[in-house]
Design brief:
single chain; 632 residues; alpha/beta; six-stranded mixed sheet; 12 strands; 33% helix; globular; binds zinc ion; glycosidase
């Protein structure tokens, strides 16, 4: 459950007429979408870290016992679970026609000045009557989301058809409006010829990189509370026990149900990382720090979580550079990132950027303040010839309501990215990109994703790695050359790091990457990656600290020649054709969770298509062959 809840409830307005009253929704002056920020800034040019002297041997020895491999439990104690993606679950509950009718009605009411209070009363009444959520959740959702969503809908210049196509994606058609059909501009520099360098020889220096994502720390987690509650987030003293089932008590180290991370889980993980990996060179931290109780969060509760988590990271890794990216859950309401042309302080997201700019100063140079305060993104030179660019991919979020007003390159982020990449190309630098929402996610807007893909294709020689989170699964996305002579040529790969939170059905996990290090002709490519996890079911039987262990290494488990894009594309083909290999991949997808849902043909098709879809809402084009293979 996420911000999409609001969309799911909107259609209920269909059944009630709203009455006109005082205090109409205020109009927000959007300043004609003016954003006078000059993106042509000098890239950061002093290497952030000194020469790395760690010598990481590949493959590294395993220092922790690996538990026996388990298979999916089929016992009656484990209810049959349905595989679903975060967001997709709610999305599938709302059909396009229902969305169009609901949004149309809501737009009309807002424009004819129906009061906020009136809409609130009607909303909560219908939300409860239709058993969408409990009264406290319905009220909370409206109070947190309403003040942002309703003024945005009032400012929207497109009709309900196009609003639904933007929010729900390709299944609801296309958006023709020029405010949502934009193209980034490339400099007139021809793309260099693509030549595949030799694979780095074994024994050359490497970087060892930790990737943490989606911690979703829940300070209100209570051991023994209902893990299978009625609300969208459970394991809290306020959780309502299930009406029709026995209570599943929240475990000490976490729960497979709709629960986020207790403090002890994060403590145990960070402590074991510090112990098992004292040789980490730097950390990628791809966001989603607050828990999933989006209906009762506030700016201050989110800022408290961010501060506590940042301080904890600094305490455990005092001497390791950390490169963060912003998650959709960092904002209030969750997922809302108004572009800079929304100057109104009630809706601008600068309250968040100001705070994180402050926190991130622990690891980042002062010069990134310009871009962080403007749009929550930055670029730094890590070592000579090696750059890290952290994007705020929440600017492609389909449920970031101000983007429905005008989605044109929010905060000029992609135009800035092109400027950075062109400068990097000119200087022969290689670049790693990090962000939270992966560009192929179904909740990343099609127009943003299309532009981003054009950038990846143009700068394929420069971009040597991409790292995201958000889906909570252990997976990846392949970028293919589109509208080209060779439509199946892979030009990039995005790694989607597994979540620390179990939400939902996952074992908690983190990633380690080995990256080609400092030497002449370094490609800066990812040489291998590992996923580390715990057996949560086993851990909850004991008070002792859980055992974090290496679940798999990509290169070994999937027998990959390299971790170059073409090898990932080959793996996708192998996964399509080899059912046993897919089983293995699916086991890792949930980090060997014993409660992972059974994956039927539909689930398999969805997962495989996700792997082929680094470009969002092009599934029919990208997965046509797959659809044919699965329908035969
Ligand atoms: Zn998340
Ligand atoms: Zn997320």
């Amino acid at each position: 459950m996420g911000a999409t809840t609001v969309v799911a409830i909107i259609p209920l307005f269909l059944l009630h007429r709203l009455t006109t009253h005082a205090t109409p929704i205020a109009s927000v002056n959007v300043h004609n979408f003016e954003d006078d920020w000059d993106y042509k800034i000098q890239p950061h040019s002093e290497p952030l870290i000194g020469e790395v002297t760690h010598n990481h041997i590949l493959p590294p020895e395993i220092k922790v016992d690996v538990p026996d491999t388990k298979f999916v439990q089929s016992s009656s104690s484990v209810p049959e679970r349905v595989a679903k993606k975060l967001g997709d679950a709610v999305r599938s509950r709302v059909s396009c026609s229902v969305c169009r009718l609901g949004v149309g009605l809501l737009q009309r009411e807002v424009r004819k000045n129906t009061s906020f209070e009136n809409i609130r009363t009607q909303f909560v009444g219908l939300c409860v009557a239709f058993k969408v959520e409990s009264e406290s959740v319905c009220t909370g959702v409206f109070d947190v989301f309403g003040p942002d969503v309703l003024p945005a809908l009032k400012a929207v210049r497109i009709g309900a058809d196009e609003v639904c196509a933007l929010c729900l994606g390709e299944v609801c058609g296309d958006v023709k409006n020029p405010l949502h059909q934009w193209e980034v501009q490339f400099p007139e520099v021809p793309k260099p010829v693509t030549r595949e360098p030799d694979l780095p020889k074994p024994g050359l220096p490497t970087f060892k990189v930790l990737h943490l994502s989606d911690t979703h720390y829940d300070p209100d987690y209570v051991v023994g509370s209902a893990a299978n509650c009625e609300e969208p987030l459970c394991c809290r003293s306020t959780s309502t026990p299930p009406l029709t089932a026995d209570v599943v008590p929240a475990g000490k180290w976490g729960s497979y149900e709709k629960c986020d991370s207790p403090k002890v889980l994060l403590d145990s993980m960070l402590k074991s990382i510090a112990r098992d990996h004292p040789d980490i060179d730097y950390i990628l931290w791809t966001g989603d720090l607050p828990p999933h109780d989006i209906w009762n969060q506030s700016k201050s509760s989110n800022l408290d979580i961010i501060q506590e988590t940042v301080e904890q990271m600094f305490e455990v890794f005092p001497n390791t550079p950390i490169f963060p990216a912003l998650g959709n859950h960092e904002s209030i309401p969750a997922g809302s990132f108004a572009p800079p042309w929304v100057h109104d302080p009630d809706h601008s997201v600068s309250w968040l950027y100001t705070k994180v700019a402050d926190h991130w100063r622990k690891w980042l140079p002062a010069s990134v303040g310009n871009t962080v305060l403007h749009g929550g993104f930055y670029s730094i030179l890590l070592r000579p010839g090696f750059r890290i660019i952290s994007l705020n991919t929440n600017y492609c979020h389909t449920l970031s309501w101000w983007l429905v007003v005008n989605s044109t390159d929010p905060a000029k982020e992609l135009q800035w990215l092109i400027h950075e990449l062109q400068e990097a190309e000119n200087k022969g630098e290689k670049v790693h990109i990090i962000g939270h929402i992966p560009p192929g996610a179904s909740d990343c807007m099609k127009v943003w994703s299309r532009n981003f893909n054009a950038i990846v294709q143009r700068y394929e020689n420069t971009i040597q790695g991409q790292f995201y989170g958000h889906t909570h699964a252990d997976e990846f996305e392949v970028f293919y050359e589109m509208e080209a002579k060779e439509p199946n040529r892979a030009v990039g790969v995005a790694y989607l790091g597994p979540s620390v939170t179990t939400y939902e059905n996952h074992n908690p996990a983190y990633r380690i990457y080995y990256v080609d290090g400092d030497h002449a002709n370094s490609t800066r490519e990812v040489l291998d990656h590992e996923t580390w996890t715990i057996d949560l079911e086993e851990a909850n039987k004991s008070e002792d600290d859980p055992k974090w262990y290496r679940l798999y290494s990509a290169k070994n488990s999937y027998q990959m020649e390299s971790l170059r894009p073409k090898s990932w594309a080959k793996l996708v083909d192998d996964l399509i054709n080899n059912a046993d290999l897919f089983e293995l991949f699916y086991k890792y997808y949930y980090r060997d969770s014993p409660v992972r849902p059974t994956c039927d043909a539909k689930c398999k098709l969805q997962i495989l298509c996700d792997l082929k879809s680094a470009r969002s809402h092009e599934r029919h084009k990208l997965c046509h062959d797959l659809e044919l293979a699965f329908s035969s």
